[in-house]
Sequence to fold (786 residues):
Amino acid sequence: MKKYILKIVWFLLLVLIFVIGFYHLNNYLFDKVHHKFFTSREIDTIILGDSHFMHLSENAMENTINMAQAADPYPVMYFKLQEALNYTSPKTIVLTYSYNNIAYFSDVKYNNFSELVINRLYSIESFYSLYSRSQRKKIALSIFMRKLFTPNIDFLNYFLSDKKVASLPFYEYKASGALKKPKQKGKLNFDKSKLKERVNSHYKYKKSEKKLGVVSISYLKKIIALCEENDIKVMLVNMPLHSSYRNHIPKFYKNKYNALTKSLTTEHSNVIFKDFSDFFDERNEFFSDPDHVNKWGALIISKKIK
Amino acid sequence: MLFNSFEYLIFFPIVFTIYWYTFRSDLKVQNLFVLAASFFFYGWWDWRFLSLIILSSLLDFNLGLLIDKNDNEIKKRQFLWISVCFNLGMLGVFKYFNFFIDNFINICAAAGIGVNIPLIEILLPVGISFYTFQTLSYTIDVYNKKMAPCRDWVAFFSFVSFFPQLVAGPIERAKDLLPQFEKKRTFDYALAVDGTRQILWGFFKKVVVADNCAYFVNEIFANYDSYGSTILIIGAVFFAFQIYGDFSGYSDIAIGTAKLLGFSLKQNFAFPYFSRDIAEFWRRWHISLSTWFRDYLYIPLGGSREGKEKSIRNIFIIFLVSGFWHGANWTYIIWGGLNALYFIPQFISKTNRNNMEIVAKGRLVPNFKELVSILGTFILTTFAWIFFRSKNISEALSYVSLIFTKHSGEALNLKDNISMSLTAFFIVVMLLIEWKNRQYEHGLYSISNNVYIRWAIYLVLSIFIIKYFNTVTNFIYFQF
Fold:
């Protein structure tokens, strides 16, 4: 009996050593890969945003990296930026700033231990501060498992080649490719009957109530404060929206948005605001759907931002 | 409680320690502890259904004694029928009531008669198909004088509710398992080590192979009409390995756990996908159920002793009943019927006992003929699995027809393609390891004489189990 238990204990110890060792090795590699990613290129501008920003072209702007990912809420952008600033000193941050970013819909994305946030930020220690101590306990295993088993091909790149690290555990980098010119009279690929439903899903809390994303707004302000501390300009960009979508946005949000814009630009000298919301108006060829520009539309906006 | 849960990882070490260190000296107290642990294990899922196990045990324990005590053959038979009716009745109410009512309503509707019988909304008690069969075998064996009745209620209740095999088998015979509760058990080092290896292997099959297959199987079967034949074939093949990994994995964990407590349970799967024909497959798949039907249904019906026609009828009956045992759905019955159709030509041509030895005995690899037979058998069983997995017969038929007619369809995304290849790799690893151990009881019975290689393999398997450990997934056979 003793012999058996001893054997089991030895084996479990071996597993434990392996698990802890692998966890720490991965932590070390996260740091190295993050470091290599940011130090192996000149970075003057970092683009942070959600799906509206994903197609903004790095090639159109010099020394720029686009770290935008679909559905990223401001808290995720904040921790990404915080991590980037550990390794690099950009001069400008181009930040998504649309009506939907301040709606309660954005708060929902990271609430209730959202998988989205954990999946994207598990490699960044500082993001734990997003949660209370009891919440952290609940997600600890989830984060531990992700850190333990993260097969990241760029870890190999780091050791085996001089290539630039192409992606990070918290951000999948995609280089902008060549673009075909769109047809002049494009057709908006969206069912208009579903438009109201789509707008409602972005703005209406519990179907009819209107509610601001308090946490999102607080993290927007934190991003601005962080940039202020580091002497970085913040360019808030309201991306083009198709008029069919724009006209459905509740006035409540437009008013709150305008008031917030005014206070941010007057209170912070490092903040500038660029409004492209009606830039393409009804030019369908520049939209992939009513609230997202396509690659061609994004290229034009990228040149404008530059 | 699920084997693949954190609760079980805490529960079992506590049970193991108390079992051997505190209650080793007193058999009755040790059995009482097993009973308490089993009730706790089952009650963790839903304590209310414990009453069914207690009722079933109470009834069969007393009926066993009454059958033995009574000299009057008619009374004996009456007691046996009470046991049969109660256990099958319980199964009928909880598992099949809605199925029969639903079909009755449909038949009446087809005949133009409007019938309105309300269906009952009731949860299927986990493991009911397993423990009712187990306790039924006891009264039948006592009636047939194959064993003496048990006079120790603690031992009997422990036998019915023994937690390692309570909810998904193997379905143990009273004459095999009950005596083990009646004699003192001592810790056997070799048995415990082998049990631990078997548990490890069971977890690998369930967590790494079956659960990874399940991801694709669920997606493909849910949206089968958007995929082309290649993906549909992959879906069917993955399901074949999912159900094998899931169920044989459960059996391995159950048998291994029992070994750690000093019990020997019967082998439930003997590497069925290495079978060269359907008859061999059915000697190797879910052995405890197949032999149960053989002994308590096929043989009482006359078996193969009463002419060819009756034998064929009997074969059909046990395959159909076996299918129906799995669930109240026509898909299971068709699955059973298909297997009967596969089996009967072998029975008629008297080739059903051709392959009694393990395949490629004494050789490292099978010869060409064996390989073709194995593949052929696998294709036949996989085809039948499509019916088993589909929600209804029309879905199964569409799935099959799309395999032959739809040559292009949606592709899986790149990430899915990578994890599909990884899943295929795990299947190959499982098959290779099991091939090496095909003459033994389980896949990790004998791995290497070199202790370092052995431990390295255990370590790698453990790491993969930790990686894919998912407490959300259930065992497929829980629903039966």
